[in-house]
Structure formats: C-alpha cells, structure tokens
Sequence to fold (644 residues):
Amino acid sequence: MEVLSQMMQLLFSGLTLGAIYALIAVGFVVIYNVTGILNFAQGEFAMLGALTCISLVNMNVPLWLAIILSIVIVAAIGGIFERTALHTARKSSVTTLIIITIGVSIALRGLAILIWGTQVQTLPPFTDNTPISILDAVLLPQNIWAVGISVVILILMMYFFNYTFVGKSLTACVVNPFAARLMGINPEKMSLFAVIVSAGVGALAGTVIAPISGATYDMGMMLGIKAFVAAVIGGLTNAPAAIAGAFLIGILEAFTEGLWSSGLKDVVTFSFLLLILFVKPEGLFAKASGKRV
Amino acid sequence: MNSKSLKLIYNNSILGPIIFFVLLFCVPLVSSSNYLFSILTMVGFYALVCIGLTTLTGYAGQISLGHAAFYGIGAYSSAVLTGTYGLNPWVAIIIGAIISAVVALIVGIPTFKLKGYYLALATLGFGIIVYTLFKELSTITGGSNGFFGIPPISLFGFEFITDTSYFYLIWIFVFFAILFTRNIIHSRIGRGLRSIEGSEIAADAVGVNLMNYKLQIFVLSAIFASVSGSLLAHYVSFINPDLFVANTSIFFLIMVIMGGKGNIWGSIVGAAMYVLLDEILKHYVPMLLPNVGGQFEIVFFGILLVLTLIYMPDGLVPRFEKLISKFKKKTPTNGALQSTISANATGGDNK
Fold:
C-alpha cells in the first residue's frame, strides 16, 4: 500500500509539472510553426507572468483580476517583442532571429533582476489549500487547479485553431505559408498574433506554478527548456503531441526526483532529449512526413 | 610600410597575425599594470573559445549554446588530473581536449543528421547535463564548493604565475589557434562550408559532405574551448561549477556576434568588447543603482545582442573595414589600412 501511495503521489506531482510544461510547450509550437523560429524567450513569459501577478497581489488587487491583468500585460510585452525585435529583423536569416530571441530572453531576465531582485517570491494558492487525501496520497488543490486550468486552456486552443477564423488562418500559415499568402492571409500579422497568444498562455502557466514552487527571475529558463524538450519529443510541429510530450517529461521528472535524486533529474530529462534526437528525431508521436530532402 | 607588403596582409598571408601579435606582445614594454594584464589574459581565454565558436556560427551556420560545457570539461579535466592525480599539466590539457572532442562527436553526430536548429537545443541540454554533473559528482569535482589547489602550469622549469607571463602563454595559444583556423577556412572544409551559402542542396548534390564538415568544425571548436578552460584552471587555481553555467555559453555567443560571426578576428574584438563592457558595467551600475544584486548586467548584454543583430548583423569588424575603406578612398596611398588588423587598431583609436 505504501508503494502504491508513493506512486500516486509522484504521479500527481508529475501531472502538475506536465500541465505547466504543456502550456509553455504549446506556445512554443505555435510560434515555431507560424514563424519557423525557436523562441528561446518562451520561458521568460511565464516568469514575467508570475512576478507581475505577485506584484499586483501585493498591491491588493484581487487574485483573479491580478491573474487576468498579468496575462494581458505579458501578452502586450510579447507583442512589443515581436514588433520591435522580430519584425524589425524579419529579413534576416532564421539563425539571426533565433539568436535575437536568446538576447531578448536574457534581457528580460536582467530586467526582472532590476525590478524584483533575486529573492524567491510567493503567490497565495488560488483557493484554500487544505490537502485532499486519495489512496493515502496527498493532493493539494493548487495541483488540481494547475491540471484543470491547463486542460481547459488546451481545449480552448484546440477549438480556437480548428473552429475560428483567426485560428484557421494561423493553421493555414503553418500548413503552407505561400498558399496562405495567396489566400489573402498576412503572415506578418499572424506572426504577431502567434507571439501574443503564446506570451499570454505562458504568463498563465507562470501564475499557476507560482503558488507551487515560488517565482524567481531565473525560473523561466528551466521552464522554457523543459517545454522545448517536451515539444521536440512530441515532434515540434504538432501541438497535441507536444502536450503528450510535456506530460511525459513531467512524470519522468517527478519519478526521477522521488525515486532517485533531485539533483540528477535534469540530467535524466536532457539525456532523454539526446536519446530521442539519436533514435527518433522526428518526435515520438510524429507520422512520417515527406519533408526530408 | 610599402604597398607590396600591405597587399600581402590583405591576401590572408601570415603577416597580418604576426604584426598583430608582435604589437600585442610589446604591450608589457609600455605598461606593467597587473590589472591590465589580468584583463588581457581574460580576453585571451574568451578569444580562444570564440575563435572556434565564430567558425561554427559564421561558417557552419550552427548555433551552439553549450560551449561553456566544453570550457568546463577542459577546466575540470585539468583540475582533477593535476590536482588529484598529480599528472603533468600539459598532458592533462591534451587529455581534456580528447575528452571534449569525443563528447562533441557524441552530441554532434545525431544532431547534424537533422536539418534546422537541433544543435542549439541539443547543446543547451548537454550544457545543463554537464553543469549538473560538475555539481553532483562532488567526490571528484568538489561539488558546489568548487575545486581548490590546482597547481600552476610550467614549461622547462619556468612557472607561469605572474599575470604577465600568463598573458604571453594564453596569447601564444590564441595566435596558433588563429593560424590553424585560417588554414581550415581556406581548405577544402572551408570551401565546402561556404558553398552552403550558395545552395545547400546544390552543395549536397556535387558531393560536399556537409554533415562531416559541420561535425569537424564543431569538434574543433570544442577542443579550443577545452584548452581554454584547462588554461583558465591553472591560471585561477580554483574553479567551481558556476563558471560553466548556461549563461556563460550565451556570453560566448554574444562575443561572437558583437565581433562579427564571419571573421575570426571578430572573436578577439568581441571578447575584448565583452570584457571591457563587463568591467565598466560592474564598476558604474552599482553607483547608479546601489541596491542591485545578482547578474544585472545581462539586461545590457541582452539588449546589445538584439541591437547588434538588427542594426549590424555582421558585427563590428566589417564596420571597421567599411570605415577604413572610406578613409582609404580619400587617401589612396594608404592602402595599409585595408587589412583587418589595422582595422582593429583603428577601431580602438576611434573610441
């Protein structure tokens, strides 16, 4: 029974982590597909979301409003980032654009040090955080919030991409940018849109994880990289696969931490990434495609 | 200088580097400030890493976010082999370089088979693995506390302890690295890599083995980083894992971009600019913002990186060259300044 409850416990924390990674990974996949850029600043959106939300709460803004406001603020920052950095340099090579996102990510991290300092900040849980006991495993309501919010958002995004006009235009840019342009879809506008959406979703991920593990200026890097790993494992171009990859990574990490060593969990995760790149670079869940030249 | 020798410089002869390094090695005749030499030595360490990285970014078109790991592998190999096992430092440097080369092969082979930017991801992940291992394998590396008591390096009984002597040592390494890399760029590998710019598919079709060339450059850059790390370990005699975090890799990339990714001299210019800016920021920003802590300077370097890429994507060195050629048009007799070396020198004068 003890083993079972420990397994349950690890599964819960794995699912929570996976839910957070999934939100960030989806944003990453959206930007990658619309613009072809690996956005290394993706994790910083989560960091900015978490820290902005904490500052708002400290100013006595109600929590729900603070969350919405921080999503809006970070989405705006995402928009500014796209217009000032990516749009200005849009004629450059993709290599250059990727390095630009690296520059933006460390600039945002430095900015966070200047504004919030290096101390860990905390956000109160969304609701009363009395642990719930299931099969002797302890489950915090915040973990349920994390998984719940992430599932709802992911379903909403699925709806958005498949059933709304803007969403379908974005999907069209992904499938065939040239044809999309012929149909009157403006890829530059779509690029702006993609960055705004993923910044907003990233900010939400940040506010969800802040009550669980706290928020610091450098939290974004690891979150971003883990989301990358999830997306690559899922196949980079496919949002549902990236989500599956995210949960896989979350659970893998939780079990490594619980059963082996917390220090070595990053080693396990990234070794897994290298292994995937070795044996199945097109991703675990990818169908064969005809794009290999 | 007569114009014939100047022509030689421009034609990528060995003369350019020799003049640059002779001038550099004369610096101790003019100044004896230890601070200056510690700064110039630091520039040397970074330049050595950046020479390889510039070639990788500029010629092979690949982004590496894990060179701090090779820098660290070199440093820790030297530290452990000389500090714990009492090996000769020179042997340790070579062993470190071999380990780095093998590791680079292991990371490189799967990633170069893929199109696109997987190297950036793979090296980023790999960098974090190596950093974590430095921290966790504390019985070998000393963990987060670091590794103390790395012996100094010596040659024929002469110990490199003073800043001035180390300045000579590191820059001799940089000199040979530059010569070696220039030869590679002008060899079959360099020509093959340049053909990618025209058309990667065409290059592939005429039998240029791009994957192999990219891999060779990647391994070479890993070896340079490793040697630089080894030399660093003997210079500072104490290392800890935080010297080799992911940020360090990003700083290397910033140096490469600032200097100019298409020119190996860019690596020296970029390294020098970085060290200079870092010193200035660390000195002046706390005066303006007294409560600031941590690595606040990354905000400036981040913005600088973005601005460089938007407004002068080829970095500083081509800028100098353009400036010089304008100057040259006005005074046509002064062809000397066309060489990149004098370009660097003039760029320095401009400030």
Notes: Residues 210-236 of chain B form the longest helix (27 residues). Chain B has one domain: 31-276. The radius of gyration of chain B is 20 Å.
